[in-house]
Amino acid sequence: MNKSENKIYSFFEFTFVFSIFSLIVFYFAKEYGLNRHWAAFPDHEVTYAYNALLFNSAIEHEQTDHSGYFSILFLSIFFKILNLLGYLSTFKFSILNNNNNYETDFQNIIFFTRIYSSITIAILYTLIFYFLNYFAKNKLYSFLLSLIIFSTFSSFVHLSKLRTEIVTEIFFILSFFNLILFFKRKNRFRIYNIIFFFLFLYCSILNKSQALFYLPYILLLTYFYVEHMKDFNLENFKFIENKNFKLILIFIYTAYLSIKFLSEYNPTLLSPFFLILNILLINIFFYICLKRFNLSVEKNLVFINFLLILIFLLFKSILFIHPSTSELAFQKTFTNIIGAVIGLTGSDQTNLVSTFFLL
Asked: Model confidence over 207-258: pLDDT tens digits?
């Protein structure tokens, strides 16, 4: 099978798998009632739909607790697409206010919010299928295992209402998969995998801050699949070899965490320590891998930390191009994360262990 035939086969395979999961998801979602009254079982879907209207109205979004940023952003784009196709007339507040038919308009908005939720679930389980098949190399086994995972209680909970976990899991799996590919690839494209590892990790954390609690599991599981690693090509990054550059990185870490912590309203002291711990975990993980293959530890670790900081700064800068992006969302997911988690679970700092198990 040549490359063009392989691409066609892969396209039809993806279409088939996605279609099967879509049919299953929509069947059960329909049983819950896609068009049930928007106030019949009020939950986050109302909050996210409201914030999606804020996004489309260029108004700063108000849902910042954990923060569902990409769930809301993609929902706002979904509304715009529906509007262009003529399925949804109301996709921003100016239209909602002019129509003076809030009940009907909001019912339509929530209906399509549930459609959007079902689509994201189908995407997630299609991704799970491909993720499992990458390791199992058996499509039937991977498909059946995906169905078993789908049949769990949590899946049916998400079928009844839009939650941030689905999009968070999509980004989290993509982050995990790129880290594994980084240690399996031997060509020059492997650097893109480490970039996407950080990028998708940031996306999952911004969408739901608790994703950061599972970073140690990603690193631990990935270690068992480490097959290959070599020095980064630093020909275009000669400044990395400067002895003072690592001190600059440490200063950036310290200054950023200190400024953000001190500028927080009612900050939690555990938050900066938790973030520092995760940065250390990433460095320890790559240190062990570098030592395993007898590679240059210092230069490679400096470059990895450079990428970690650079990607975060670019990630945040690009998102702030959108007028609805809120600094408060970043504060509660990347700065005062422990305070946000404790606030969401209604716990205090002395009950942090039980808080973790409530994630």
From this structure: 998 899 999 999 999 998 887 788 888 777 888 888 889 899 999 998 888 8
CA distance 199 to 175: 8
What is 316-347 written as a DSSP string?
A: HHHHTTSTT--HHHHIIIIISHHHHHHHHHT-
Q: What is the DSSP letter of 42?
A: -
Closest CA to 274 of 220, 327, 344, 335: 335
The string of pLDDT tens digits covering residues 25-78 is: 999 988 888 888 887 776 678 889 999 999 999 999 888 877 899 999 999 999
23 Cβ contact list (under 8 Å, min separation 6): none
Alpha helices in the chain (DSSP H): 3-32, 44-56, 69-85, 93-99, 102-136, 139-150, 153-159, 165-184, 190-207, 215-223, 245-262, 270-292, 297-319, 327-330, 337-345, 352-357
pTM above 0.85, yes or no: yes
Inform me whether the pLDDT recorded for 344 exceeds 70. no
CA distance 18 to 54: 30
Nearest Cα to 158, choosing from 117, 207, 108?
Answer: 117
Nearest to 283 by CA among 293, 297, 272, 296: 297
Residue appearing with tokens 């090509």: 233
d(CA 279, CA 300): 15
Which residue from 148, 143, 118 is spatially nearest to 130, judged by alpha carbons? 143
**pLDDT value, residue 345:** 55
Name the residue type at position 130. Answer: Y
Residue closest to 164 by CA, chosen among 72, 78, 91, 80: 72
What is the Cα–Cα distance from 51 to 267, expressed in whole angstroms? Answer: 25
The Cα-based distances of 113 to 53, 159, 161, 295 in angstroms read 11, 12, 9, 50
Per residue in 248-305, pLDDT (tens digit) is 999 999 888 888 777 766 667 788 888 899 999 999 999 999 998 888 888 999 999 9
Sign of the Cα pseudo-torsion (122, 127, 129, 132, in order): negative
